[in-house]
Design goal:
With about 400 residues, the chain is an alpha+beta fold. It is built from 13 helices and 16 strands. α11 packs across α12.
């Protein structure tokens, strides 16, 4: 029996290795269109590979999988984050869990995982065919099983050969990207990190929390990346031209007003810009005060009037808005929202409902997660599911 795996990425290798472990007599070939395999693993997590998450603070999978959370809940009963952790440790990859619940190789080097995959593939006799582009199932007519693990397709045209077989395609759009914001004064704060903010798209229910990084092009960090994931389709429809609101304190305006009133009492003679409230950095606070009060930004705390306090409180608690002028894409952040519609596959096996013995795993499916190791977990879970399904078909 022979299985062809189309795509030499994380899901493809994980599927190949598990399939050989479950079904040693199966001949397995990986077809990779480029000259390199596992390139996304190499650059992920800044070269460290955030391979999964502890899920310790995840109360509802919809919060970490904006698309596909119901299917992931079902499939993770068969291969969870704990199973993934144990799998890597069992295959010689020591792992560590950070305080933010992200899981990385103890080596802090993505090549540890790449070397593991390549070594296990060689040990099991997996054939790897480089520069082998597959865009028709007829090219693999001599294989008993076919699994598509090509990752996210930037354009729907890349999946047309599968649409031609009856599979519904959910139009792909980018997810997990940073925001371009045209504001030179903001850009001057490049490198400033605020540890815990809330970002929002006004007029919607879209919210995201976490650290925020100010860059020379706009804003980045988990609070931005998560929001881009939650709002991937809305942002695409707007042409990446919409309003972003930031709550710098994650407090309501009434709470912030109390804090500002206390500042007026505690240090009335001090220049307001020199004494930041709410743990804000001096650079960010100065920028916000100048943005809010203009010529009055050099005032002393004790000279502020009620209207000025209200304006500052509103600014710090969600009234600070920015115009998004585009998205900035980086290979270590890029994820695709969309792909093969989940209605086109059997939810227990991920086998195509249109073509027998054709399976899908990884980002080619309409499943994507926020930053934090959740996309790799989806790759491991779906790949393992397919390996089990093919093995059970042979038995």
């Amino acid at each position: 029996m022979k299985t062809a795996i189309i795509g030499g990425g994380a899901a493809g290798f994980f599927l190949a290795i598990n399939l050989k472990e479950m079904c040693p007599k199966m001949e397995v070939s990986i077809f990779e269109k480029s000259k390199h395999v596992l390139s996304k693993v190499e650059i992920s997590g800044g070269g460290r590979c955030n391979c999964t998450n502890s899920f310790a603070e995840v109360r509802d999978l919809s919060g970490v999988y904006p698309r596909g959370h119901r299917l992931m809940k079902r499939l993770m009963k068969g291969f969870s984050q704990e199973d993934a952790y144990e799998w890597f440790e069992r295959h010689g990859v020591r792992l560590m869990t950070q305080d933010d619940h992200c899981v990385f190789p103890l080596s802090q080097d993505s090549h540890t995982i790449i070397n593991c995959f390549l070594a296990e593939a060689r040990r099991h006799g997996v054939e790897i065919r480089m520069e082998s582009r597959i865009d028709s199932l007829e090219q693999l007519s001599d294989y008993d099983f076919i699994a598509v693990t090509t990752g996210g397709s930037p354009k729907a045209e890349g999946l047309q050969w599968l649409a031609d077989k009856g599979h519904e395609i959910v139009s792909p759009v980018p997810s997990l990207f940073t925001f371009q914001i045209t504001d030179e004064a903001l850009h001057a704060l490049m490198g400033t990190v605020v540890e815990d903010v809330m970002t929002m798209i006004p007029g919607t229910k879209l919210r995201a929390e976490g650290p925020l990084l100010i860059t020379h092009w706009g804003m980045s960090g988990p609070a931005i990346l998560k929001l881009s994931s939650y709002g991937a389709r809305l942002l695409a429809e707007s042409g990446y031209q919409t309003t972003l609101a930031v709550n710098w304190t994650k407090r309501h305006d009434t709470e912030v007003m109390v804090i500002l009133d206390e500042m007026m009492i505690r240090c009335p003679q001090k220049q307001m810009k020199t004494v930041p409230p709410c743990g804000l950095s001096s650079r960010l606070w100065t920028y916000l005060v100048e943005k809010c009060l203009g010529e009055r930004s050099n005032a002393r705390w004790g000279s502020l009037n009620k209207k000025e306090i209200n304006r500052l409180a509103n600014l710090l608690s969600g009234g600070d808005s920015y115009q998004i002028t585009g998205r900035a894409t980086f290979k270590d952040e890029f994820v695709t929202c969309g792909g093969i519609a989940l209605s086109a596959v059997n939810p227990s096996t991920l086998e195509s409902r249109h073509v027998p013995r054709l399976y899908f795993a990884g980002e080619v499916l309409d499943i994507d997660g926020i930053t934090g190791g959740f996309n790799f977990q989806a790759a491991w879970t779906t790949a393992y599911t397919v390996a089990c399904a093919i093995t059970n078909s042979v038995a």
